[in-house]
Amino acid sequence: MREIKLRVWDRIQEKMLKPQAISFDTNSTSPFAVSVPGRSWEPIGKYILLQWTGFCDNNGTDVYEGDLVKISSVIYKVIWNKTLATFELLELGSFSKCEISAVECSIVIGNEFQKAHLTPEAVQFTLF
Q1: Which CATH number belongs to the domain containing residue 87 in this structure?
Q2: Containing structural domain, residue 16
Q3: What does the angle CA 68 – CA 54 – CA 96 come to, to the nearest 5 degrees?
Q4: Residue 128, domain member (yes or no)
Q5: What does the pLDDT look like over 47-85, one tens digit per residue?
Q6: Integer angstrom CA distances of residue 118 from 45, 81, 114
Q7: Structure pTM?
């Protein structure tokens, strides 16, 4: 069985967290509530769920959807392609895409929510 890891972006506190538990609606199987360390159950709308791609970068860091990765001098955003039901790499400032397996030759430099690790040159190319 494939390992599933999730993290959540707290929209209010603007902070990345690891959920302790996620509650799902039994009828729609959609996430309903999240429990994070130090807090009780909170509505899912307060968070953005981000799934692990199953890959790690060149340094062994887990790569999640929404992460920004650098391959050579090109920066990509990890996205979920609903049509193909797969993760992909979308080049920032372009419509070019790469297969997710290329992420093994990358370095995670940040994510779409926190840009603290990005250089000024990288930030100017982001679409956010």
Answers
A1: 2.30.30.290
A2: 6-123
A3: 40
A4: no
A5: 999 999 999 999 999 999 999 999 999 999 999 999 999
A6: 27, 25, 9
A7: 0.84
